[in-house]
Amino acid sequence: MMQPIFPNSPKKFISPLLKWVGGKRALAPILCNLMPPLDQINNYVEPFVGAGGMLLSIQPKKAVINDLNAELINVYKVVRNNPKELLLELDKHINSVEHFYKIRDIDRSPSFAKLSVIERAARIIYLNKTCFNGLYRVNSQGFFNVPYGYYKSPNYREYSKVCAISEYLNQSDVTILNGNYCDTLPYIRKGTLVYLDPPYAPVSQTSNFTGYNPGGFSYEEQTKLKKFCDTIAEQEAFFMLSNSDCSLIRELYHEYKIHKVRAPRAIAASPNSRGTMTELVVTNF
Ligand SMILES: C[S@@+](CC[C@H](N)C(=O)[O-])C[C@H]1O[C@@H](n2cnc3c(N)ncnc32)[C@H](O)[C@@H]1O
Question: I want to staple 28 with a disulfide (CB 3.0 to 4.6 A). Which of 57, 79, 138, 241 is the partner?
Answer without folding.
Answer: 57
